[in-house]
Write a structure and sequence with these properties.
Layout: E1 17-19, H1 27-41, E2 44-49, H2 55-68, E3 72-78, H3 81-91, E4 95-98, E5 108-113, H4 122-134, E6 148-150, H5 154-163, H6 168-174, E7 177-181, H7 190-197, E8 201-205, H8 226-233, E9 239-243, E10 250-253, E11 259-260, H9 262-273, E12 279-283, H10 289-294, E13 300-304, H11 308-318, E14 322-324, E15 330-332, H12 341-355, H13 359-364, E16 370-377, H14 382-392, E17 397-399, E18 404-408, E19 411-417, E20 423-430, H15 433-447
Parallel strand pairs: 2-3, 2-4, 3-6, 7-8, 7-9, 12-13, 12-14
Antiparallel strand pairs: 1-5, 4-5, 9-10, 10-11, 14-15, 16-20, 17-18, 18-19, 19-20
The chain binds magnesium ion.
Magnesium ion binds next to loops.
C-alpha cells in the first residue's frame, strides 16, 4: 500500500489498522502502536472492543503501550463501534476501538476515535504513524505510569442517545414484530434491547457472542442471511434487521422476506429526511437514485471518495444532516458523525410508524437503480486495470475521484482498490438488474 510520496508504510487503512493477531498484528506491534497513541492523545483514553477471540490480547497490548506513556484508560466493554464513539463524544474523550468490523474471524484491528466521536482524521493518523516510526514515545517515569479504569454506563448512554432522536410513542403504538440477526457480533445485547424498549416483539438469531462467527460470515449480505430471510418469510414480521460484526452498519429484510440493498435504504432515508436546501453526502459508489430524489426538491448530493471517515468529515464541513454508503452504513448528523446501526434501525422504525406503511411499499416507490458488486484479487497493478477499462469503454465519461469510474447515462462502472483488503472492488450500476449484471460480466472478462 506504500505510495511514492510517503516516507513510510501506512499503518491505518480506510478504517483503522487491520491484521491477523500473532502474525502482523502481534503483541509487540500492538503495544508499540499503543505507545504512539498514548503519546499522541496524551490524556484520558476510552477503550472498547467487539467480541473477536483475540480481543483480550490485542486490547491488553494496546492498553499497556498507552499506560506506559502516562495516559489513563477507561474500558467500557464489548459494544458496537458507534456506542464507543457516542461515549467518546459525550465525554469529550478520544478512544480506541479493537475491531475488524466485517472481516473474517481471524482478523482484528485498531481504530482511533477523536474526542468528538468521529473517526480520526487522516492527518492525525499520520501523526500517530510518524510517532510510531520515529519511536519518539513519551515514556513516563515510574510514578507517572497511567492507570486503567472501567465504566459500565456506555450501554445505557447509547440506547438513550438513540431513543432521544426518534418518536418513541408512535413507534411503541405500532407494536412492531422484528426478527434480528446480530451475527454473533457486538450488537448482541444493544439491538434486541433497543427493540424491546421500543415496544417491539423481538425474535433474535445468533445473539450469542462468538468470535468464530460460526453461524454466519460477518458481512451482512444476502448469501450470509439465509436463516434470517427464511425466518421473516415464515411470516408475521414487519421486517428483519442484520448487522456486520461491530454493528456500525444495518441492513433490512422487508415483510415479504426480500433483502433490501443498502443503497435503497439510504435512498429511503434521503427521501424522508432531506428537505429543500439541505445536503446529503455519499461516496461515488452509491446509486444515482440520490440525485433523482434530491434535485427535484432543491436539495444537493455531495459525492466523496469511498470510506465512512471521509463522508463524516465532509458532512461536518458542509453542515449536512445525512450521509451514507451503499453498504448499509448510514450517518445521522443530529446524532453523531459516524455510521450507526442502531440509529439506522431507530430511524427506519420512525419512518414506518410515521407513514403507517409496510417496508416493501415504501421501498417500491424509490427510483429503480441496481448495483452489482464483485471483488477481484488485486494481482496486477491498478494502473493496468484502469487502462484496460478506458480502452474497453471508449467514449464513456471518466472520473478518478476514487479508483476509476466510467459513465454513460445511468450506466456506470466503478473499480477501486479496497482500503482494507488486497482486492479490487468492482461496482456496475444501471436501471435494471439484468443490465448491471451483464456489465459486471463484461468488465470481468476484460480484466481477465
Ligand atoms: Mg463495521
Amino acid at each position: 500500500m506504500m505510495t511514492s510520496n510517503q516516507k513510510h508504510k501506512r499503518l491505518f487503512g480506510t478504517n483503522g489498522i487491520r491484521g491477523i493477531p500473532n502474525d502482523d498484528l502481534n503483541v509487540d506491534f500492538c503495544m508499540t502502536v499503543g505507545k504512539a497513541i498514548g503519546t499522541f492523545f496524551n490524556g484520558k483514553i476510552v477503550l472498547g472492543s467487539d467480541n473477536r477471540l483475540s480481543k483480550d490480547m490485542t486490547l491488553d497490548a494496546v492498553n499497556s503501550g498507552i499506560l506506559s506513556t502516562g495516559s489513563e484508560t477507561v474500558y467500557i466493554g464489548v459494544l458496537p463501534t458507534p456506542a464507543i464513539q457516542y461515549y467518546c463524544k459525550k465525554h469529550n474523550m478520544p478512544g480506541v476501538m479493537i475491531t475488524a468490523s466485517h472481516n473474517p474471524p481471524q482478523f482484528n484491528g485498531i481504530k482511533c476515535i477523536d474526542s468528538d466521536g468521529t473517526e480520526l482524521e487522516r492527518s492525525r493518523e499520520e501523526k500517530i504513524e510518524d510517532i510510531y516510526y520515529s519511536r519518539n514515545f513519551k515514556i513516563s517515569s515510574w510514578e507517572k505510569i497511567g492507570r486503567s479504569f472501567s465504566d459500565n454506563s456506555a450501554f445505557e448512554l447509547y440506547l438513550n442517545g438513540v431513543m432521544d432522536k426518534i418518536n418513541r410513542e408512535k413507534i411503541r403504538n405500532r407494536k412492531f414484530r422484528v426478527a434480528v440477526d446480530t451475527g454473533n457480533g457486538a450488537a448482541y445485547l444493544t439491538t434486541p434491547e433497543l427493540l424491546s424498549r421500543l415496544g417491539a416483539t423481538v425474535v433474535s438469531l445468533n445473539a450469542n457472542p462468538d468470535g468464530l462467527f460460526t453461524s454466519r460470515e460477518s458481512e451482512p449480505k444476502p448469501a450470509n442471511l439465509k436463516y434470517l430471510i427464511d425466518l421473516v418469510k415464515s411470516g408475521g414480521f414487519d421486517f428483519g434487521i442484520a448487522h456486520d460484526g461491530d454493528a456500525d452498519r444495518a441492513v433490512f429484510i422487508d415483510e415479504k422476506g426480500d433483502f433490501i440493498d443498502g443503497d435503497r435504504t439510504l435512498a429511503l432515508f434521503v427521501k424522508y429526511y432531506i428537505k429543500k436546501g439541505e445536503k446529503v453526502v455519499t461516496p461515488v459508489s452509491s446509486s444515482d437514485s440520490l440525485e433523482e430524489i434530491c434535485e427535484p426538491r432543491g436539495a444537493r448530493v455531495i459525492r466523496t471518495r469511498v470510506g465512512a471517515p471521509v463522508v463524516s468529515r465532509t458532512m461536518i464541513e458542509e453542515k449536512a444532516r445525512l450521509g451514507g454508503e451503499e453498504n448499509g452504513g448510514i450517518i445521522f448528523g443530529d446524532h453523531q458523525y459516524c455510521r450507526d446501526g442502531a440509529m439506522t434501525l431507530g430511524i427506519i422504525m420512525d419512518i414506518m410508524a410515521g407513514e403507517k406503511r409496510t417496508l416493501s411499499s415504501l421501498i417500491e416507490e424509490l427510483p429503480e437503480f441496481y448495483i452489482t458488486r464483485k471483488t477481484i484479487p488485486a494481482s496486477s497493478g491498478f494502473e493496468e486495470i484502469a487502462k484496460a477499462l478506458k480502452d474497453g469503454f471508449k467514449g464513456w465519461e471518466i472520473s478518478t475521484m476514487d479508483g476509476i469510474k466510467l459513465r454513460k447515462g445511468h450506466d456506470w462502472i466503478l473499480a477501486r482498490p479496497s482500503g482494507t483488503e488486497p482486492i479490487i472492488r468492482l461496482f456496475t450500476h444501471s436501471t435494471s438488474l439484468k443490465r448491471s449484471e451483464e456489465m459486471s460480466e463484461q468488465v470481468q472478462k476484460i480484466l481477465k
